[in-house]
Model the fold of this input.
Amino acid sequence: MLKLSCALLAWAGALALPRADAALGPAEILPVSGGTITVAIDTGLTAKRTDLRHWIDRAVAAVTHYYGEFPVAALRLEVRMRAGEPVNSGREFSGRLIRIHVDPAVTATDLNRDWMLTHEMFHLGFPSLDPAYHYLEEGLSDYLEPLARVRLGQTRPTQPWQDFMEGMPQGLPKPGEGGLDGTRDWGRTYWGGCIFWFLVDLDIRQRTGGRLSLDDAIRAIVRGGGAGRGGLVAGADDADWGWSDRHGVDPPNPRRMGTERGRSPLAGAVARLGRGGDWRRRPFRRVRSSGGGPAGNDPGDQPVGVRRWLTGTRHG
Ligand SMILES: [Zn+2]
Done:
């Protein structure tokens, strides 16, 4: 439920860029790898500017580490004040603007715990799609944000598995529901989309023996010009994005997988992720069974190997 406030606002919003207003202070230019961020902060916010800057730096570090560089050359980031959760109502607009709100009483600890700004920045690396494929956009940010943050030690090693095991069941189809394409359901959009990318990641890793992963596919999308394509509305049929020629395997096909995997196998895949070992405390250590030896390190040895696989920065 933590991710509800971001989700609801994005869900209800339109694509048009919002107008600026006088409540924002003077813009500051923040150089990042591959570009600049123009940061404007609400003049009414009393949070220390150094704390806010550290918060922004952490989010930039997570997405930059994942993509190899910041995914767009120019971004405007507006930090506005709104009562609510410590950080609330984040939204990304067409690869050019992120607007995010913080509560007047936000603390440095709150900011250090925040996931929302990183989630919004991950949207910058993926094209805007037709509304029928909105689950691809939201699911990708939901999937990458905890993995990127844990890879940099910004959050506990157990955090991604806690997020996934609590969130993914909300993305499972109800009886009689079909695939994800065209869904307008919140849980299926955000967490169904997250399951989709999780399965794509596993699929790529298993078919390539761990040589490649979703990381390679997403970076290829960015290099292929998919990132920051303001106002682009693409269909899922356009979704090769330069991936297949480089890697010699079939590209992830959002339309096909979104449909085929929108049924019962999803539940099994989610359940398997949580099995084996005490993932709430030691996600990478398998509990010995009475008759078995210690677990191997085979990345395909689900689910302990899978968890280790996904949070590692190297393949295999
Ligand atoms: Zn989002």
